[in-house]
Design goal:
Blueprint (H helix, E strand, L loop, with lengths): L1 H27 L5 E5 L2 E8 L14 E4 L7 H4 L3 H5 L4 E4 L17 H14 L6 E5 L3 H10 L6 E5 L12 H5 L5 H6 L11 H9 L8 H5 L7 H21 L10 E6 L11 H4 L6 E6 L6 H4 L1 H24 L7 H6 L6 E2 L21
Parallel strand pairs: 3-4, 3-5, 5-6, 6-7, 7-8, 8-9
Antiparallel strand pairs: 1-2, 2-4
């Protein structure tokens, strides 16, 4: 019986240490935005930008940034928020169960449900027809939003966005987190203690082959993902995404919005051959841009290029909206084709290297 006592004391000690570390982390990385209640859940968001300083036509188009797995809205505050907010109203949101947003109990809040919650938040904030930007896992949310609320969005941008199912499963601890009793026990004892020593390695794998920027871990508060509730939510999101995408990906042909797919040609976490290259053949108004020599964290490695592409899309949408607001000529005429007809999807050859496909069958990972 002595070994049972030892196990009990060890687990109790690890749980106590985890709780202490959670309080320290939350004191170090408190909420930086506002809290709103949508469908009875608390959502944490930020709303940035000074209208008086917004130049150019893109200023009329808000931008909503949706973070991927294993992070929070702090990821965008360390990359895109500042440069974009000089030209757009920029809203960021912690996805349900991440950062400081609550997660519904029971059934998994799949990307469609997360899109519904974000739509409810944007309605409360009077954010009209935004460009939705999703990194990695959140590509699925952007696509779900465009499918469910086509009139409520102006377009979408996927930054190394997940769009299609994959083979090969997920990393072992995401599966372990889904085991009844054992998963919650592990979540409350190990990530905040032993798991913290692996964070640097995980960050390096996300940035590979690029160098991790100095201070990245401190600026993004990535350790918040190790809190028990967040760890379980993150693992559930990763574990269940591929089957969801198997169903959702059948409907991408219905997305008529301008859709910009930006990917690093060295990304081995969400490889273009299984995601962006498939999506660009389905969505009729999708553009595909490669950033040469860039891995999965493209918005940190090539921030200026990503910002420029988003602003260009905003200018394109704003200009199209102005043309349509004047009056659309009779459908089918040459003037209608110029001003009102959807433009065909294409790649942007002046911005990309030749396509570099990964070998078929290589599994995606989506996040460490």
């Amino acid at each position: 019986m002595s070994w049972l006592l030892l196990v009990f004391l060890t687990l109790t000690g690890l749980a106590a240490c985890s709780e202490i570390e959670r309080h320290r982390l939350e004191s170090r990385f408190p909420p930086i935005g506002e809290l709103a209640h949508v469908e009875g859940l608390r959502l944490h968001y930020t709303d940035s930008g000074e209208p008086s300083e917004w130049p150019g036509p893109a200023a009329a188009v808000p931008v909503v940034l949706i973070h991927g797995a294993s992070t929070s809205l702090l990821d965008f505050h360390a990359s895109l928020v500042e440069p974009l907010s000089g030209r757009h109203r920029v809203v960021t949101v912690d996805r349900p169960g991440h950062g400081y947003s609550e997660r519904p109990d029971g059934t998994w809040p799949d990307p469609a449900q997360q899109a519904r919650l974000i739509h409810g938040l944007l309605s409360r904030l009077d954010v009209q027809r935004p460009i939705l930007v999703g990194h990695s896992w959140a590509g699925s949310v952007v696509l779900a939003y465009l499918l469910a609320y086509p009139q409520a969005a102006a377009g979408g941008v996927l930054l190394a966005g997940g769009s299609h199912p994959w083979e090969g499963g997920v990393l072992w601890y995401n599966d372990l987190a889904g085991v009844p009793i054992l998963g919650p026990l592990v979540a409350r004892t190990l990530p905040m203690t032993l798991g913290r020593v692996t964070v640097e390695r995980g960050i390096a794998s996300v940035f590979a082959p690029n160098r991790v920027p100095d201070g990245y871990r401190d600026r993004t508060g990535v350790d918040l993902t190790l809190r028990a509730r967040t760890f379980l939510a993150n693992a559930e999101d990763i574990r269940l995404l591929s089957p969801f995408l198997e169903a959702q990906s059948r409907h991408y042909g219905a997305i008529e919005h301008p859709l910009l797919l930006i990917t690093g040609d060295a990304d081995e976490i969400v490889p273009a051959w299984n995601h962006a290259e498939r999506l660009v053949t389905q969505a009729p108004n999708a553009d595909l841009v490669y950033l040469p020599g860039v891995g999965h964290a493209l918005h940190h490695v090539r921030t200026e290029a990503v910002v420029r592409l988003i602003v260009q899309l905003g200018n394109r949408i704003a200009s199209q909206d102005r043309l349509q607001a004047v009056a659309c000529p009779q459908a089918g005429s040459d003037e209608w084709q110029l001003a009102c007809a959807p433009q065909p999807g294409r790649t942007a050859p002046d911005l990309i290297d030749p396509r570099k496909r990964r070998e078929a069958g290589r599994p995606d990972r989506l996040a460490p």
